[in-house]
Every structure is written in C-alpha cells, then in structure tokens.
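#struct-help
A.M.: can someone run this one for me? Single chain, 322 residues.
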Amino acid sequence: MITENYLALIEAEIRLLQLGSTPRSLYDPIRYIMSLGGKRLRPLLTMLGYSLYKTDVEKIVRYAVAVEAFHNFTLMHDDIMDKAPLRRGKATVHEKWNTNTAILSGDVMLVKVYDVFRDLDGNKLLEVLSLFNACAAGVCEGQQSDMEFETKPKVTEAQYLEMIRLKTAVLLGFSLELGAVLASAPAADQQMLRTAGINLGIGFQLKDDLLDVFADQKKFGKQVGGDIIANKKTYLMIKALERSKGKDLAALKKWISAKKFDPRKKIAAVKTIYNNIGIRELTEEKIKSFFDKGFQELNQLSVKNKTGDLIRYARELVDRQK
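D.P.: on it. Structure tokens below:
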C-alpha cells in the first residue's frame, strides 16, 4: 500500500535528521521522542496531499518530517503540563531526563522545524511560515483551553469541539494544506484540503475519546478508561452530564467528586451510565458527521479522481481500534 511506502520514507528521513550533538543532554531527548514511533499521521497527510498533484513525493519528505517534529515538540511540552509518566509505553522525556531539559529540548526542536522550512523558495517560504505560525498559535490556544477546562465547572459541547479543533485538528488541516502548497496546487484546493483536514481531525480526536472508554484493552495499547479516572471533560462526559437524569446523574456526579476510589469500579460504573443513555452511539454519530464533512470536501477538489489513497487512509482512521 502506498502509505507503507511513505512511512518507510518518513522513518528513513527521521533517522537522517540533522539536529546537533553538543550538549548531548539537549539533543538526545529529541532523538528519543522522535524514535518512539506513533501513527506518523501528520507527515503522511502532507505526503498524501502533495501526491494529489505531483508524483515526486521524495522531494518533500523533509518538510513532512518537520510537521512530525513540531507535533512531537507539542507532545514533549504537553507531557510536562500533564505530568504524564509514559508516552507510547515508554518514559516521557521529563521523566527520563528532567523537566528543565524537556523544556529546552522542546524549544530547540521548534527551532529545528523553522530550520527545515528555511530552504524553501522565497514565495513558498513566506506562505508556509504564515500558515505554520497561525497553526502553531492555534495549537497553543487549544492546549490552554484544555488546561482551563480542568478547573471549569461546566464545559459545553461547542466549547469542547472548538478546543479540539485548535489543539488537534488545525495541525491535521495544516499538514494536508502544506502538501498542496508545496505541490503548487490551486488556491481553492489548498483551502479545501485545510478544511477537510480540520474536519477529519475533529473526527479523529472524537474517535480517540471514544476508544479511551470503549476500546479493546488488548488492542488499545494503553489503559482504557484513563479519561474517566481523570474526570476529563471529553465529548462523552459532557453529553452524559447533559443527558443523564435521576439515579444515573446522581451516580455520575458522585464518581466525579470522589477523592478516593477504586479506578476499576469507577470506570465500570461510568461506562454503565454511558451505556444506559446511549453515549457510545451518540459519539459515533458525531464522529461520522465530521468525517463525512471531510470526505465531502475532498470530493470537491479539482483532482477528486486522484483522492483514492487519501480517502482510503482517512477511512482507516474512522475504523481504527487503537
């Protein structure tokens, strides 16, 4: 499959990254987090977006990997804020080294992203940097909102969807748009790919929320129910608080306010409430609505007869179980 070929190119380029050598304590954490793998979703989208218009995808792999480096920079700093001990089953950078090193390594990681973009042609450079800066600011805004939600007594569905649009989806939109910009695609297509990427990105994050509660533990690769334990105001929790009544609502509020509890019992109890009021089905409908918007937008491109690989990959995201 074409995405497997692209993944091989991405991994090879990551191994070739010119980062720096001294002090090792600054650069080794970057190599470490970039080596932890992951879906490589964002660089794949950049390459798939480019391949709609040109065939020489090898020419833009380094720019696709720059997007992945930015994504991992955000993860490095997010892990510090979340006090997360693990990332993809391995120790997070601030745990393996220390918090100050993780902050500085993340900072230089961002600098290296700009370093990669620096060799673009003048007009392309200005366009890409303008789009990237807007995207990066949006990601930070989304992360700030997510942190503020932790202490906010009530979060609405609209507020949550806007938060994940910024924190997660705008980077997927930028990834697709970047491929189109590098391929000199028509301006209308560039904008349509950005919008499609954002809608696919919202659907992607909602699917993550759903899997966190309902995934098969053997397939998921991390603890199922982590969001429930942490009282995260996900789409599922927001809708459950809106829709539950009587005993279900009382039980839900009791578990949310509990300071001491058995995590397994809390997960089981909240899942039972979700099942009682149809939260899984409601979330699946919402996921489908955003993916459908993304597919509709892809079908409006001037090269809609060439979107097969991109649509197949997007459908894999809809159907994934981890």
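A.M.: thanks! The chain has two domains: 1-119, 122-322.
D.P.: also worth noting: The CA atoms of residues 74 and 106 lie 8 Å apart.
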